[in-house]
Design brief:
Shape: globular
Helix content: 25-40%
CATH superfamily of the largest domain: PurM-like C-terminal domain
Order of helices and strands: HEEEHEHEEEHHHHEHEHEHEEEH
Number of strands: 13
CATH class of the largest domain: Alpha Beta
Number of helices: 11
CATH architecture of the largest domain: Alpha-Beta Complex
Distance between the termini: 15 Å
Length: 326
């Protein structure tokens, strides 16, 4: 099989299709596009998610914290705690572990999240560091936001820009590959994109504002996340490429490597659907978060990108562009 997440069609058939759903306390179960689960705790729901980080090397600790917390934020909740499992190959030094843990703890402190457990192990089963992070939060049950809540007529709002995480990873891990065609200043600026990969702030703001669905953009990029919202909500979409923000550094890196920024892993961007996208954008901008209106949710299941070079069907995501480089 190809590197990356298992294709959604296979996931649905051989993973999700085998799950038993017996407990009435479970409010939100696994599904295409649903990154969190929710458990009934009376007035509140306990929200949980788990994620592995396998495609990054130099920023692995920072990304591990942010990716799990982003999933929680896409439900409208504020993350409270993290359990971290760290698997490292035998060549790993004590200094390496210390550096990774410092990054994890510093990032968690910025997000006001506690590290509440986990496991650390040296194993020959991996050839680079793998971190699995599990995040937990609580939210009032009637405030829980899902990926599957998008409604025809909703505006589609996107925060920040496409390919944020991929830009940071490529600039950091593949700097030598870029040096001949990018200035050091541009590469350094691209590396700094790692500072933008949290969507906790905008997720909490959007949850309080009142929205119908949210989904943070990870593997498969903007187009993959749009498809997952559409699939989870059983709706169509009309999206406009010229309205999707892409930073200059991302465009340059993608042109050099011949990859598509709209299909590049993009933690740091949050997709939101709601009845009044312009009002939401105003609220986000007021709180220092850039956002753009990129399209509409429609009836049916046709998902279309009106691009600069014609019309493209937004289809099930394939292997993320990052893994083409790896």
């Amino acid at each position: 099989m190809d590197i990356g997440k298992i294709p959604n069609s296979i996931l649905k058939e051989i993973v999700l299709g085998k799950l038993n759903n017996n407990r009435k306390e479970i409010l939100l179960r696994p599904g295409i596009g649903e990154d969190c689960c929710a458990v009934d705790f009376g007035e509140y729901a306990c929200v949980l998610t788990t994620d592995p980080i396998t495609g990054a090397v130099n920023q692995v600790g920072n990304i591990a914290v942010n990716v799990a917390c982003n999933d929680i934020a896409s439900s409208g909740a504020e993350p409270l705690g993290l359990l971290i499992t760290l698997l490292a190959p035998p060549r790993t030094t004590e200094k390496d572990i210390e550096t990774i843990m410092t990054s994890i703890c510093d990032t968690a402190t910025v997000l006001n999240v506690d590290i509440i457990g986990g496991h650390t192990e040296i194993t020959a089963a991996v050839n680079q560091v793998v971190i699995i992070s599990t995040a937990v939060a609580k939210i009032l049950k009637d405030k829980l936001v899902t990926t599957s809540g998008a409604k025809p007529g909703d505006d589609i709002v996107m925060t920040k820009s496409a390919g944020i995480e991929g830009t940071a990873i490529i600039a950091s891990d593949y700097e030598k590959l870029l040096r001949e065609r990018m200035s050091k200043d541009k590469i350094d600026k691209a590396k700094d994109f790692v500072k933008r990969i949290s969507v906790v702030k905008e997720g909490v703001i959007a949850g309080r504002f009142g929205v119908n669905s949210m989904h943070d953009v990870t593997e498969g990029g903007i187009l993959g996340a749009l498809w997952e919202i559409g699939e989870a909500s059983r709706v169509g979409m009309e999206v406009y490429e010229e309205m999707i923000p892409v930073e200059d550094e991302t465009s340059l890196i993608c042109n050099i490597l011949n990859i598509n920024p709209l299909k590049l892993i993009s933690s740091g961007s949050l997709l939101i659907t709601c009845a009044d996208g312009l009002a939401l954008i105003g609220e986000l901008n007021k709180n220092g978060v850039n956002a753009a209106l990129i399209g509409k949710v429609t009836h049916g299941t046709n998902r279309v990108l009106y691009g600069r070079n014609g019309i493209e069907i937004i289809d099930e995501p394939e292997t993320d562009e990052l893994f083409k480089i790896i």
